[in-house]
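Write out the 3D structure for:
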Amino acid sequence: MKNSKFLSFLGTLSKKELVAFEQYLLFFHRKEKIALLVFSYLKPFYPKFNTPAIAFEFAYQEIFGSPLPVEPKGGKNKAKKLLNALSDLFLFLKEFLIIQKVKKYPLEKELLWSGVLLDRRKVRAFETHYPKLKKKVNSSPVDVPGYLDKLAASYIPNYLLLEDNSARSIASLLTFIDDLDCFYTSTRLKMACEIATQKNVLALNLPMDSAFQAVSLVGVLSPNLKKSNPLIAIYMELFLLIVNKQHESFKKVESLLRANTDRIENREQHIIVIHLLNYAAAQIRLGHPEGWSMVHRLNEYGIKRKLFIEGGSMSPVQFTNIINAACKTRSFRWAQNFVKTYAPYLGEDIRENNIALGQAQIAFEQGFYKKTMSVLKKNPGGDLFYELRARSLTLRSICELRQEVVEIQKYCFAFEQYIFRNKKRNTEAIASVLNFIKMLKIVIFRKKDKERIINEIKTLKPIQFEDWLLRQVEVYYAAAPSRMKGKLRGKSGNQLKT
């Protein structure tokens, strides 16, 4: 039963939606006694449904009070009772989710109602309703689906049959063409940005002719249309930014976004911000430290607009990345406030770990290395990717505290053994940490000449903490040879000085 469509969809509901769905069942389907009985049995297992209690035969006996008959014919018929109930529940849930979507997006309801009025030839009622619909469409913040709503609103009077065809005036048709151009152009540009991004990430040799045609189309739009649709200008500049990588386009997009923040839907702003963050991250990888201030600035904007919160929660990766960028720009007080304010948006099962990581990261970047280790020691630990981040912070803290080389070596060995015991698959994250440990051991033992090791760190990919490793090269290779020899033999009392 765990593979049923009903359970797979039921598990996606929020707690609030689950309560609303139960009320919906009791109000609209109260006569469906078997379906209600099955739902009552399954509800306590929400949201995971991975318990043996929902095994078909066990659930059947618990729900209906008798075992599933073993007779082939009788068994088939009896089993059908439970299967039919699950099928009915899925249909009821499907209806409920459609109704919820219409409630959430009132414009969809108004568009559907316009179609109903015309289907039933209620022309006068439509003529009263339609101006209100157009006003709502035109005054709403825009995203690409919003352009589709505008197009649909224009389509209804111009292409659905009316009793009085004179209602399709020249002005109405011209508006329809404008709405069609806006939807077409914005969609093509948005898709062009996605294609260009994937082309860069995957190093694909894809033709971009269709995308450039979309850029050319922008020039055909009337000045008033372009002025009233900043989203089109933003996606045009975004496309040029992704293809040509010109910083001027980055500044134009950021400026247009901030100037039109109340005119563009949050979900569309989120997509735009992600494109800008990708560009800023690329600048960091190219060795341009100003990329960190760009990232932090965009994070501040995204937090203010609640762009990074989806369904009432924030992803742990986003949470960690925001803290990291704030630390890189020395915005420590801001980072601390962020941890306190946004930790509640993390899932309960990962909250404690991510709070510890955030606090440890802030302490480390401030130079409080003992505090970093203390914060992490208090936390009970977590999954592999938590441990990768936490142990990397601890290892770097040990190095910064200039502990004995032998102690650093022991921690490196223990860290590697942990990874090899726990990794289930090879990923870039795991490879980058292993390469980091490998190069750190070479640095602390000075196994190669300085220029050679610097070149290896810069060329080895993937690798974490490249800049930090390069700083450690300067520290360890600046040490006096005699003192370093003492450290290599593990003598106590000879702390590495810089």
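Residues 393-498 form one domain.
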